[in-house]
């Protein structure tokens, strides 16, 4: 009985690690799909407009975004070499990374929210190696890969 | 003062680091106080 | 019951090893993808993409482009909302995304 108990504890630990690793893998797959989609979109756009967009209107990856209410007063100190910044806000703010912006732009085809259309699923599968397709299908359906191991 | 330190400047990576920051910044009751006195006329905006 | 549990733990061990392998592969693929010259050139968003990402119009959107390993420090808001940036590999670019 004691050995069964120990195995049960070991099983739960592994299950927890598998869940964490599966969501880490899904995040990496989302990033890969989103980035490939963004590059594809820009390539098509530049081909159709026969010229790259004006340099002042594009923001190259990687970047992060800090957003706050327009009425927020921002006190900003900058070192002369622009290597150090200090911002003081008088209101709350949010910080997002580039991948979050790509998701909001729809570059990850709704996979992150399990709202991927059949057409988008075809596109998403074409953007990843075959070994990852089952994870893409699982995300599109909003189902957990873990169920194939635990039957729950 | 507790603070959150993250490394930025690399492509992608784990995005949950900013979720922790946003949760910390937006959880404080200070924002509640601030929104309470938001009724006051908005202060002159400083631009970067 | 003991044998069943042994079998399950062994299945999970294999599953975890497979996930580790896929995560390593995915990280490598992503790094190669973002380091590819052509993809580097085409890996950009437009200002209007950013604008559309923040549905409420009364948001001020600040863009921060920093060299690798730049340290960002956000203080606990009890005494003010403070963000500091410190780079050791070159200047940091900060600009506001225009409203229009």
Question: Can you lay out the helices and strands and say which pair or pack?
Answer:
The complex is a heterotrimer of chains A (152), B (48) and C (100).
Chain A: H1 2-49, E1 58-60, E2 64-69, E3 74-78, E4 84-89, E5 93-97, H2 98-104, H3 118-126, H4 133-141, H5 147-150
Antiparallel strand pairs in A: 2-5, 3-4
Chain B: E1 3-8, H1 16-27, H2 29-36
Chain C: H1 2-35, H2 37-42, E1 44-46, H3 47-53, E2 59-65, E3 70-75, E4 81-86, E5 93-96
Antiparallel strand pairs in C: 2-5, 3-4
What does this protein look like?
The complex is a heterotrimer of chains A (152), B (48) and C (100). Chain A has helices at residues 2-49, 98-104, 118-126, 133-141, 147-150; strands spanning 58-60, 64-69, 74-78, 84-89, 93-97. Chain A is an alpha+beta fold and 152 residues long. Chain B has two helices and one strand; from the N terminus they run βαα. With 100 residues, chain C is an alpha+beta fold. Chain C has helices at residues 2-35, 37-42, 47-53, and strands at 44-46, 59-65, 70-75, 81-86, 93-96. The longest helix of chain C has 34 residues, at 2-35. Chain C is elongated.
Keywords:
heterotrimer; A: 152 residues; alpha+beta; two-stranded antiparallel sheet; 5 helices; 51% helix; flat; B: 48 residues; globular
Note the gap between the termini of chain B.
Answer: 26 Å
The total count of helices of chain A amounts to 5
**Which runs of chain A of at least 5 residues are low in confidence (pLDDT < 50)?**
144-152
Which stretches of chain B are low in confidence, meaning pLDDT under 50 for 5 or more residues running?
Answer: none
Q: Whole-number radius of gyration of chain B?
A: 15 Å
Order of helices and strands of chain B: EHH
User: Could you tell me how far the N terminus lies from the C terminus of chain A, measured between alpha carbons in angstroms?
Assistant: 24 Å
Oligomer: heterotrimer
């Amino acid at each position: 009985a004691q050995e069964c108990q120990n195995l049960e504890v070991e099983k739960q630990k592994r299950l927890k690690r598998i869940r964490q690793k599966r969501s880490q893998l899904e995040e990496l797959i989302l990033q890969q799909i989103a980035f490939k989609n963004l590059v594809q979109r820009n390539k098509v756009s530049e081909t159709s407009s026969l010229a790259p967009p004006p340099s002042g209107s594009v923001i190259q990856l990687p970047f992060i975004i800090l957003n706050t209410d327009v009425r927020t007063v921002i006190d900003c100190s900058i070192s002369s070499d622009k290597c150090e910044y200090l911002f003081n806000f008088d209101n709350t703010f949010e910080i997002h990374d580039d991948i979050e912006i790509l998701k909001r732009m729809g570059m990850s085809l709704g996979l992150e929210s399990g709202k991927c259309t059949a057409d988008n699923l075809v596109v998403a599968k074409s953007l990843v190696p075959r070994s990852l397709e089952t994870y893409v299908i699982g995300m599109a359906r909003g189902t957990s890969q873990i169920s194939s191991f635990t039957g729950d | 003062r507790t603070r959150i330190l993250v490394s930025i400047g690399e492509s992608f990576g784990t995005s949950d680091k900013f979720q922790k920051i946003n949760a910390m910044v937006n959880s404080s009751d200070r924002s509640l106080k601030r929104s309470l006195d938001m009724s006051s006329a908005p202060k002159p905006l400083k631009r970067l | 019951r003991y044998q069943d549990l042994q079998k399950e733990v062994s299945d999970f061990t294999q599953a975890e090893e497979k996930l580790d392998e896929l995560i390593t592969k995915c990280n490598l693929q992503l790094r190669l993808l973002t380091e590819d010259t052509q993809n580097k050139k085409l890996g950009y968003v437009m200002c209007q993409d950013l604008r559309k990402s923040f549905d409420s119009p009364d948001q001020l959107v600040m863009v921060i482009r920093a060299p690798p390993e730049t340290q960002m420090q956000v203080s606990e808001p009890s005494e003010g909302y403070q963000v500091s940036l410190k780079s050791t590999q070159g200047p940091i670019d900060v600009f506001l995304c225009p409203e229009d």
